[in-house]
Structure formats: structure tokens, C-alpha cells
């Protein structure tokens, strides 16, 4: 999933408590819009702990299902849950299907990869006739949860270590993907959904981003500096996302969905 050299991904943190269901729900919503009756092979790019890959296996039990990720920790978790799926260690940035894939599915993974013009064109062109590229990406980078990371990172104690190291906002506006894929031979559908996620516990938004957007910060700071960074960030998050009297912290999260079916 991440393009980092070290494996910072923690599948238990990523799927912690109710976060697992909240991270899986967009994959369900995306899969419900994939119209293909009998794919021979379906690939889940950036499969993580396999929660989205198992959805593909349940939808198409007769197909060969493959999950690809560059995190050994994530793949170990995925394999332990379902050894029948073909789990492969690989990087999305240079991935090519070894054989024709009727479904290329990517849930919350392609936003880690640069050059979306080249990436989406390459994946769409790899599809056979009737094949589907189905993508879901976070589009929440302007929200406080992500903007506050950049704000704290710009401060002198962290600025030098984190310059150019944060999770890049490679995600383009929806019209970019619609126009890009419309130029190929196929049918395009692009839409956005904002989920009003109900989180519980102390500092739940911080716990959410620990599993994703904070990983590059942790990777590039010492343990002591990361601790100081987290405390500054925590204080800002508490103001941006206050807990309600019933113990719920509402965390709006916008996601973009893209479907391309090849002619």
C-alpha cells in the first residue's frame, strides 16, 4: 500500500475495533456497482489485510482471486484469514497482470501512488473486453484530519525531516478521471460519497490516522520527535473533532469512486 521502504503498516491498528467495518464499507459500495457476471480472474491491488479481497472471493467463488500488496505484515494477516487466495508481494507503481484480469479492484490504495494519468491509463488498457477497473480513493485531504498534519509538519522542529515526506495528495478532481478514462474505449462512472463516521473512544480520529496518514510521519521522525508531533496534532484534532455528549465523535470522510468497463 505505502511506497515507503520500510514496512510501517500495522494491520491490527488499521482494522482496530469499528474501524475495520468503516474501512470495508466503501469496498462493499464499490463492489455493488461492478457489473460482471463471471470473471475468470479478479485482482485486488493494495489488498492490505485482505478485507476487500475476501469480498471478491465471496462475490465470485469460481474466479481466481489475487491480492497484491507491498506490505509483508498486511499479507501475513491476509493469508492467515484465507489461505486459498493468491497473495502476492508487489508494488502497484510497476504492477502488471501476469495474465488477463477481468476485474482490477483497488480500495483505498491508489492514492499512495503518483502519476495517476499514467497509472489509470495503464490499468484500464490492461483489461480485456468487458473487464472492469473499480477504484475507491479517499478524497479527504482538505479536511482537518489531514490538513493539520501538514500544519504541524511545517513547524521548525519537524519541517526539515518531513519536507516532501508526507502522504502526497496525488488524488485529482473527479473530472480528471472522467476525462482521462472517457478518452479510452469503454464506459466511465465517477461519483463521490461523504460518510459521516461515528467514532468512539478517546482521540478516535487520531487512532484512525495512526493506521494511514501518520505512517510517513512516524517513518521519518525519531521516536521522541514523533511523540512530540503526535501531542501537538492531538490537541488540534480535539478542537476540530469534538466529542458529543453521547460519546460519539463524528468524523466526516469523503471518498471518490471510479468505475471503467472496457469495450
Q: What's the level 1 CATH class? A: Alpha Beta
- The helical percent reads 25-40%
Shape: globular
CATH topology call: Rossmann fold
Please outline the major beta sheet.
Answer: 7 strands, mixed
Distance between the termini: 29 Å
Strand order of the largest sheet: 3-2-1-4-5-7-6
Q: What's the CATH architecture? A: 3-Layer(aba) Sandwich
Order of helices and strands: HHEHEHEEHEHHHEHHHE
What this model shows, in words?
- Helix content is 39%, strand content 21%.
- Helix 2 (19-31) runs parallel beside helix 3 and helix 6 packs across helix 11 (223-240).
- It is built from eleven helices and seven strands.
- Residues 1-6 have low confidence and may be disordered.
- Strands 3-2-1-4-5-7-6 form a seven-stranded mixed beta sheet, with helices on both faces.
- It has a single domain, classed as Vaccinia Virus protein VP39 (Rossmann fold), CATH 3.40.50.
- The chain has helices spanning 11-14, 19-31, 51-59, 72-81, 116-125, 144-153, 156-162, 174-182, 204-210, 215-220, 223-240; strands spanning 41-45, 64-69, 86-89, 103-107, 132-138, 186-199, 249-262.
- By secondary structure, it is α/β, with parallel strands linked by helices.
